[in-house]
Amino acid sequence: MSSTTHADKCPIGHTGSDRKTERAGERYQPAIEEVDGTWHLRSQHLVRQALREFGDESVQEGFSAQLIRANTSGMRTPVLYMDGEPHRQVRAKIARYFAPVTVGRRYRDLMEARADELVAQARQRREFELDQISLRMAVHVAAQVIGLTNSDMERMTRRLESFFEFPSVTPGAKAESRLAKLRVKLRSARSSLPLLFFHLHDVKPAIKERRTRPQEDVISHLIEEGYKDGEILAECLTYGAAGMVTTREFIVVAAWRLLERPELLNRYLAAEETERHKILHEILRVEPVVGHIYRTAVDPITLTEGEQSWTIPAGALIDMYVRAANADAEAVGEHPHAICPDRARARGVRPEVMSFGDGSHRCPGSHIAIQETDILLTRLLKLPLTVVRTPSMSWVDVVAGYELRGMTLRIG
Ligand code: HEM
Known about the structure:
This protein is α+β, with helices and mostly antiparallel strands and 412 residues long. It has a single domain, classed as CATH 1.10.630.10. The chain is 50% helix and 13% strand.
């Protein structure tokens, strides 16, 4: 028997750069460099080291961290912007809402029901934009986990969509500069109306209900912990940015990649759940929704690679390139931009590599995201679909990721 090469095991798009969400001008090398005080990390090993081993020596700088800090002084900060021991305690307490067994048991029926509804609506229309469906799926599922279930879901979706349309604050913009402060204030002022509506129509009714009848969700937990209304609102927005916005994009990119490769689509539709999830993780590795993870060092951080070491000084911005780390051939083997679910990865490298982050802030919603994507796509992609229009792509700073709009599909 002839020996099997990696390419034999990976017949699907194993040549050349296959990534759809390539960002022009983004560099993949060198693995580490300092430019004007900012440290750029691009290898899987260095990004993992920084996130896993130096979580306590750095603080969040992405996801509009400056804006959040400016608006939450004197309040409890949302989980994404916390650090150290208080952050660990919060994560331990919310873990029960995100454990795979819980997600499988508690949310499966609900995800299936929502996916059936959305597919039925798509069938009626015959031609539809996928990001509108993926938004509704992502908002509905995250809303159940958070506990935003006492208002009109369709209206809440539109309110959240208009809130997240406002441009975010670029990571690393010097907080002390007057221009940056002004920009933060302007951004806050412009988005305050949709924020107010979201608070009054969606968050407040959910809090009111749970003060008398607590449920198994994040808002009930926050009430129990003594969070005030404004603090609960900030946490809901964090889940909105971290959970709804990201999953919306992932569903579109996964469908796009599967639809353009019939052999991969057939394999996906015929597979068991574990295998389907493996395919989705590999798509997420190649097309990470969160393109960069940012931190500011609060203590010196010494990173090592073989014999070499580098010390990042306190106060420096650290820019971690998820796209580059995920395509690091040392970690994921040859043809790193190709979708190859059976690829052999280096020991300890996760299937999606850095797409859900790593260390203390690693995404708690990873299982929810993969499960809901799978439940929607197994239903939707079974239909005889034609791609009328591929999506247009733009970039958002809040997650340093892509936004895919206008992917139009026709049934029949
Ligand atoms: C494909 C979909 C998703 C992607 C790509 C994604 C990605 C990420 C990443 C990269 C982080 C870490 C950010 C950092 O370290 O700075 C993160 C954190 C987080 N994600 Fe997700 N996420 C997704 C879906 C979800 C869902 C569905 C939920 C909840 C319903 C969720 C909730 C969160 C929360 C609460 C955090 C903050 C955790 C902390 O700071 O301790 N995510 N996500």
